[in-house]
From TrEMBL, chain A:
Key words, A-Z: Metal-binding, Nickel, Zinc
Keyword match RNA-binding: no
Protein name: Hydrogenase-3 nickel incorporation protein HypA
Gene Ontology biological process terms in this record: protein maturation
Source organism: Pontibacter chinhatensis
UniProtKB/TrEMBL annotation, chain B:
One of the protein's GO biological processes: urea metabolic process
Record organism: Pontibacter chinhatensis
Domain UreE urease accessory N-terminal: 9-72
The name this protein goes by in its record: Urease accessory protein UreE
InterPro entries the UniProt entry points to: UreE (IPR012406), UreE_N (IPR004029), UreE_N_sf (IPR036118)
Length: 114, 153
């Protein structure tokens, strides 16, 4: 499954980034935008499946935070939040110029003892 | 106030008599109800460590902790959902198939609505598919999840 490989990749990346501290990771926070095409539940379920295979990861908390969609309005040169799929600025100008919402990334890593 | 985190391994139940105890609330997202591990603060500031090994899900209103003086209750936060009101059973099937392909959990309400958490792609897909998706704020309850499709990754 696609999501399993994403979660595997996350932990492979963390292992490479923190070779000495990896064992002490207590929490990993990821950000998934509402336009990333990956819902948090899929990451969460994939992680639950992964810890069955790799019980060593079971003490780590994986938190997925959803990021709202933010677009840029050319008319007022401002960013606005796309609420309920309305890609229209408060000034009335429609915009599909996305500045946030497409990302899927590691946003925070916490370790035991610091 | 206790300073040590309270460890919770399972829910104590839903409709317990909590008497005069102080009710503190632990809020979680709908997609966090089946997490086996999670450290969170209640609204009252108490740290709670969820540590469950039974692969189950918490339900909205579950009592997590009960002492002489207080109760900690789990609440599922509402979120923007795509709500569909299919006209026929056949349409329910088509919708569930389309959404199920994306492996996203589907929820069926008592009003026979099909609910799924909002995301931009899914909404666009349903819109282009000729369905009439509405976006409404809802609580997605684990017990309303449709189990027939590949929900688990
Ligand atoms: Zn504008």
């Amino acid at each position: 499954m696609h999501e399993i490989s994403i979660v595997r990749n996350v932990f492979d990346t963390l292992q490479e980034t923190y070779p000495d501290k990896f064992e002490r990771i207590s929490k990993v926070q990821m950000e998934a935008g509402l336009l990333s095409n990956i819902q948090p539940i899929l990451i969460q379920n994939a992680f639950e499946a992964l810890i069955v295979e790799e019980p060593g990861l079971a003490d780590i908390e994986l938190e997925v935070v959803q990021l709202p969609i933010i677009a840029h309005c050319e008319a007022c040169e401002k960013d606005f939040e796309v609420v309920r799929h309305k890609f229209v600025c408060t000034c009335g100008t429609p915009s599909r110029k996305i500045v946030q919402g497409e990302e899927l990334q590691i946003s925070k890593v916490e370790f035991i003892g610091n | 106030m206790l300073s040590e985190p309270i460890e919770v391994t399972h829910a104590l139940g839903k409709d317990l008599d909590t008497g005069q105890r102080n009710v503190d609330v632990l809020e979680v997202e709908w997609h966090e109800t089946a997490k086996s591990r999670m450290r969170r603060k209640t609204k009252g500031g108490q740290e709670v460590l969820i540590n469950r090994t039974d692969r189950g899900s918490f339900q909205d209103g579950d009592i997590l902790y009960l002492s002489d003086k207080r109760v900690i209750m789990l609440r599922i936060k509402s979120c923007d959902c795509i709500v569909l009101r299919p006209a026929s059973l056949q349409e329910v099937g088509t919708i569930c198939f389309e959404i199920g392909n994306k492996h996203v959990p589907i929820f069926m309400t008592e009003q026979e609505e099909v609910c799924v958490a909002y995301d931009g792609y899914l909404y666009q897909m349903l819109l282009s598919g000729g369905f009439a998706p509405a976006i409404e704020e809802r609580v997605l309850h684990p017990f309303q999840m449709v189990k027939a499709y590949g929900n688990m990754a």
